Amino acid sequence: MNITGGELLVKCLLEQGVNTAFGVPGESYLAVLDALYDVPNQLKLITNRHESGTSFAAEAYGKLTGKPGIAFVTRGPGATNASIGVHTAMQNSSPMILFVGQIGRDMREREAFQEIDYKAFFGTVAKWVTEIDNADRIPELIGRAFQVATSGRPGPVVIALPEDMLTDTTEAQPCRTIKPFRPAPDMRAVHQAADLLNAAKKPLLVVGGGGWTDESRVSLNALVQKINIPVATAFRSQDLIDNCGPHFIGDASFGMPAHLRDTILKADVVIALNVRFGEILTDGWSLFDVPNPKQQIIHCHCSEGEINKIYQSEVAIHSEQELFLNAITPLLTSDYRNILKPIKAAHETVLSPKPAHGAVDMAPICSHLRDVLDDDAIITNGAGNFAIWSGRFLKFRKNQRLLGPQSGAMGAGLPAALAAKAVDPARQVVCFAGDGDFQMSSQELGTMLQNGLQPIILVLNNGLYGTIRLHQDKRYVGRPSGTELVNPDFVQLAKAYGFWGARVEKTEEFAVAFATATTKTN
Question: What is the pLDDT of residue 38?
Fold first, then answer.
């Protein structure tokens, strides 16, 4: 039976278990939109208001579920608008597949309307970029895309779809369900790592990266509980471990607390579990000597490309994190609670900052949220100084999740919140957004309205691009330029989209406002 390329593509997605996709429609993939018309109860297309919202939502969906977030955009401007989410997915290590409508195959290399070479454009920010020239090859290349997006270090795949290919007919059958492979550790290296850790005097465990599951979190907790090792998380990975437990000592992020920086510098053995040694974790590569650090590093990562990339490890292990944890935990015999206690005590002082200037103080507000958030709440944020409050002063319990852009992309929080609500509409979702950050994606309130998705959005309104003003005030004192914002009435904006809104002008007003918002979104 002959079907179109667009129909075959949708059948392949259904075979992979896809039930949700995000997109902005375009004439370049009308055949796909037509095929989706026939399966509304199997695969729901959530129509965004901007392609950045599409790609941000797909990235967040991938990070939250472990399954590739699916995004559809049109050629040219649609693809360039979506590139911010692809970059975020790459730096977040989130599985994602971006489908881009493409010009007809007979128009290539003539600078046709909205023509772009997608392999060149996305080549450095995606794991793999391809174009499907033959409808018969759709199953092959879709299967490969799912394999690439989910295996090793998860990440984004970009697939261009020439519009004339999508209307071609084919007798090809959908690909079978892809099963990602899991690299297992070399047991000789695991024994070396265990010996090194058992002999350590001041060890530290640092965790982060993508591809974590509920099972791998359980395995992480089992190791931590057994040896009572201090645990730090990489940037925006605080939800990997229960922050209320005795082992979490902070996130290695911007403005790293002194106690955490000191712990890293003085550690004799560092287990780097699924983390990349990037600029933020290493404070500009200053906490470890390049390429031979004073600390002995045990580096386990699901991608061989990250191991010994910058720092030479004492023990290097290419493995999926759960398999490594399950292999090494039975071999560990030491107990580090005596070194843990003073570090943990120092961390607790960070959660009690000095009162801030102004009528609204976010520190006690975050303290209140720690007490009232649901045990499985999902927190999202974009980028800006405002995110320091939630990043440092919230405590993520074991079933709470964090969706935030490690790429520092403004505007990511709102689309992430709508994606989280799309995954589980009954789950509490709270988005932290700055005023500038919010307005980069505020049009997605329309997407939320259309689909009945109601997260709680906290807009921190200071009338500034705050991060840039901070740097400006340090380097060019008394010469602010381009960083002031004149904002709309955000309460009225919420009402225009059919949402309840309130303005909090004093710290003590927040508790009532948040409680009301909670009842409105249930």
Answer: 97
Residue 273's SS3 state is strand
State pTM to two decimals: 0.96
3-class secondary structure, 177: coil
Q: What share of the chain is helix, strand, coil (3-state, %, to 5)?
A: 45, 15, 40
Peptide bond into 162 cis (omega under 30): no
Residue 110: what pLDDT? Answer: 81
- Going by C-alpha positions, the residue among 413, 465, 432 that lies closest to residue 88 is 413
Residue 228: name the closest of 197, 252, 266 by CA.
197
Nearest to 149 by CA among 175, 178, 117: 178
Q: What is the pLDDT of residue 353?
A: 67
Question: What does each C-alpha distance from 140 to 60, 179, 251 come to in angstroms?
Answer: 26, 14, 41
Query: Closest Cα partner for 452 from 422, 416, 420, 410?
Result: 422
Q: Chain-wide mean pLDDT for the chain?
A: 95
- How far apart, in whole angstroms, are the C-alpha atoms of residue 180 and residue 73? 26
Q: Which of 497, 490, 453 is nearest to 47 (CA)?
A: 453
Listing DSSP states for 39-101 in one string gives -TTTSEEEE-SSHHHHHHHHHHHHHHHSSPEEEEE-STHHHHHHHHHHHHHHHHT--EEEEEE
> Could you tell me if 206 and 38 are in contact, meaning their C-beta atoms sit under 8 angstroms apart?
no
The residues pairing with 46 across neighbouring beta strands, listed in sequence order, are 22
Q: Which pLDDT score is estimated for 337?
A: 95
3-4 and 169-170 beta bridge pairing: antiparallel
Phi, psi of 344 (to 5 degrees): -65, -40
Structure tokens at 511: 């508790």
Are the C-beta atoms of residues 98 and 116 closer than 8 Å to each other?
A: no
Angle of the 510-521 helix axis to the 362-372 helix axis, nearest 10: 40
Report the candidate in 501, 517, 497 with the shortest Cα–Cα distance to residue 447.
497
Q: Which residues of the chain have pLDDT under 70?
A: 1, 353-355
pLDDT in tens, 29-68: 999 999 999 999 999 999 999 999 999 999 999 999 999 9
Q: If you ran DSSP here, which 8-state letter would residue 332 be given?
A: -
- Which residue type is seen at 151? S
pLDDT of residue 377: 98
Return the number of other C-beta atoms located less than 10 Å from residue 146's C-beta: 25
CA–CA dist 443, 410 (Å, integer): 14
Contact by Cβ (8 Å): 338, 227: no
CA distance 383 to 280: 14
Q: Is 356 helix (H, G, I), strand (E, B) or coil?
A: coil
